[in-house]
Amino acid sequence: MHQGKVALVTGSTSGIGLAIARTFAQNGANVVINGFGDKDAIEQERSGIEKDFGVKAIYSGADMSKGDQIAAMVADAGKALGSVDILVNNAGIQFVSPVEDFPVEKWDQIIAINLSAAFHASRAAVPGMKAKKWGRIINTASAHALVASPFKSAYVSAKHGVAGLTKTVALETAAHGITVNAICPGYVWTPLVEKQIPDTMAARNLTREQVIKDVLLAAQPTKEFVTVEEISGLALYLTSDLARSITGAILSIDGGWTAA
Question: 59, 155, 187, 237: which one is catalytic?
Answer without folding.
Answer: 155
